[in-house]
Amino acid sequence: MGQTITEKILSRAAGRPVSPGEYIEVSSRVPITMGRFTGDRTSPMMKELGVDKLFDPNLIHFVDGHIGTSPSHNAGEARSRTREFGKRMGIPLENIFELGRAGIEHVVSGDNAWALPGEIFMCAHNNGHTTTSGALGAFAFPLTFGSNNYLITGKTWVRVPDSVKIVVNGKLPKGVVGRDVVEYALGQIGPIASAGKVIEWVGPAIDDMSIDSRFTLCCNALFFGAWTAIINPDQKCIEYVKSRNPNPFEPLYSDPDASYAHVFEIDVSNLVPQIVPPPERYHVHPVTQHEGKPINRGFAGSCANGRMEDMRMVAQVLKGRKIHPEVVFNITPGTDRILKQCVQEGLMEIFLEAEAIVPVPSCSMCAGLTTPLGAGDVCVATGTCNYRGRMGSRDAEIYLANAATVAASCVEGKIADPRKYL
Amino acid sequence: MRKLTDTFVLRGRAWVFGDQLDADWQICSLETMAQLKSPGGGFLTGKLGKVCLENVDPEFSRCVQPGDFIVAGENMGYSASCLDCEMEDPHAMGAASLAIKEAGVGAVLCESSNANFMMTSLNLGLPVVECRGLRDKVHQGDHLQVNLAAGTIVNLTTGDEMRFPLYPESLLERIAVGGLYPHLKHKVANEMSGEEQ
Q1: Across-strand partners of B76?
Q2: Which 3 state secondary structure label does DSSP give B188?
Q3: A192·B116 Cβ contact <8 A
Q4: Beta strand pairing status for B143-147 and B9-16?
Q5: Helices B115-123 and B169-176: crossing angle, nearest 10°?
């Protein structure tokens, strides 16, 4: 019996062949990311335990990007404490990704290809979108409550998960991207079949898909109830990684006769842009079902869709147009690197001419950290979540969609099918 | 001294819930956490038991007895928020698991569970047992006996017996001492006393 890519990665980490259901102890040789607050939790824990060293300061990467420049959560003090903690623990200065060289942690991780194919990639907190890096053929998950233990010991236990294969057949039509595929699949499969498992995305449409869209697929694994998601690394992926990370790696791949808890097949040849109305995360409709619904807020960004592909789609729609006078449109590039590229490619000019606003790279409006929604606001967003209160007021409505749908809706002042703009 | 094996035999009543009891709103909502913290509320540890499941069954935290079981369906502990945490408290990452533990629940029994919820709960010393077919054999208020070391659930009310995959010994040891950090504390203390000798 063959193995899935997940079973192979975990077997290599365990030093012996492992199967789903086994509990094993693993560690990783690639960077482990921490947010700005993680040190705040780690310091008192270390004091309590009487330890004064981290397992390997060189592998710890602080990314100060979730809140960006937003004036909340005692940000100033937390930044100082992070610096102080880093210094005390001997974390190299170049591992501290402070504002100006950062962005959303999961997008920064992808930008730098820290999660090498065939490796285990972890974050030392509980952010469910750490799975984004699974797009590079790594087994990526958050350490959650076990974070401090890992930072001290360099080891964690995991239960080898079952895999769920989602085969995406067909060729994506124009104006339909990874975001639509992942939402459509979620609507079809729901949040139960993948509970506690790893989703493996395969098929011709995945092979054709950009790395940016693949990140989107893996970013949203948690909404399926899945632990994480992963994509077998193809040539496109290998080249992407090599161009961003000089470290050597040995990719792993699922065997053709590997075993899966479930196999789902979808065909995307006739897929239309998808939309997720509030408040359930897994009730998904074609955008055409909600066309014409008046909106007054838009957001393009987040770990799901704050990448160049998304920025370019937004620009394609906005070029030569102004957004609707009743709409505030917040476009937040996912990282400083992406922001710079937006400037270089002339996208920033298009955004500003269209009268959108562009906050610094961060989670931004997705978590209500910039331009929060007020009561009665209706927002179309590429953010990750649509539960009540996510982007501000509990009495606002959040519709989730791809970047082009968001831009087209902001131009029209109502939910719009973007395909006529592309 | 209690024998280690005694730690692994749990007895209590069943509190039956449905599929997808979520960590964002139903078990311990982000809003409730914000209310408990402000203004100047300090850490959440010690406060979550009283609000556990208040959005599903307001009587739960008052009526649950120490050692009772939560019996849930599929995808127990689902989270769609990615924010289930307390910013400063080193002990309160995974508020849903903490709320259940603080309510006095002896173990969570379910058809399937969310991986992050399961890992966090076990690391907190709260057993999460996945057992197929459980829901058909357990009703609200049934008296159950769960043997973690033997991998069995006995419904003492009906006589039904169910089996679940065993935890490895290393995890049982952690559960026995109250979770990952108490276990690490013992380990660090032992290593240090070893060095001194």
Answers
A1: B113
A2: helix
A3: no
A4: antiparallel
A5: 60
Distances (CA, A) of A205 to A53, A116, A169, A209, A275: 46, 23, 6, 6, 20
Q: Does B79 touch chain A (CB under 8 A)?
A: yes
Q: Please state, in angstroms and rounded to a whole number, the distance separating the CA atoms of residues A4 and A259.
A: 7
Residue spans of alpha helices (H) in A120-224: 147-153, 178-189, 204-208, 211-219
Residue intervals of chain A classified under CATH 3.30.499.10 are: 5-159, 275-416
Give the chain B residue whose CA is nearest to the CA of A383.
B81
**The listed CATH number (3.30.499.10, 3.40.640.10, 3.40.50.920, 3.30.70.20) that belongs to domain A5-159:** 3.30.499.10
Tokens of A352: 């500003």
What are the average pLDDT values for consecutive 10-residue runs of chain A, which has 422 residues? 97 97 96 78 85 95 82 74 90 92 94 98 90 98 91 96 98 96 98 96 98 98 96 98 98 98 98 96 96 98 97 98 98 97 98 97 92 97 91 94 98 98 94
For chain B, the straight-line distance linking the first and the last C-alpha, in angstroms and rounded, comes to 27
Cβ contact, residue pair A37, B87, below 8 Å:
yes
Question: What Cα–Cα distance (Å) separates residue A85 from each residue in A30, A91, B89?
Answer: 21, 8, 16
The reply to whether residue B90 touches residue A49, judged by beta carbons under 8 angstroms, is no
Give A80: exposed, middle or buried? Use CB within 10 Å, 0-12, 13-18, 19+.
Answer: exposed
Centre a 10 Å sphere on the Cβ of residue A291 and count the other Cβ atoms it contains.
16
Per CATH, domain A163-267 is 1.10.630.10? no
Query: Rounded mean pLDDT of B166-187?
Result: 93
Place of tokens 């797009």: A135
ipTM of the complex: 0.92
- How many CB atoms are closer than 10 A to CB B152? 16
- The residues, any chain, with a CB within 8 Å of residue B76's CB and separated by 6 or more, are B20, B21, B108, B110, B111, B112, B113, B114, B117, B128
Q: Supply the pTM of this predicted model.
A: 0.95
Q: Does B194 touch chain A (CB under 8 A)?
A: no
Give span(s): CATH 3.40.1060.10, chain A. 163-267
Q: Which chain B residues are within 8 Å of A191, Cβ to Cβ?
A: 20, 75, 78, 80
CATH of domain A275-416: 3.30.499.10
Rounded alpha-carbon distances, angstroms, from residue A1 to A4, B25, B39: 10, 42, 58
| Chain B residues with CB-CB distance to A125 below 8 A | 85, 93
Q: What is the mean pLDDT of residues B145-160?
A: 97
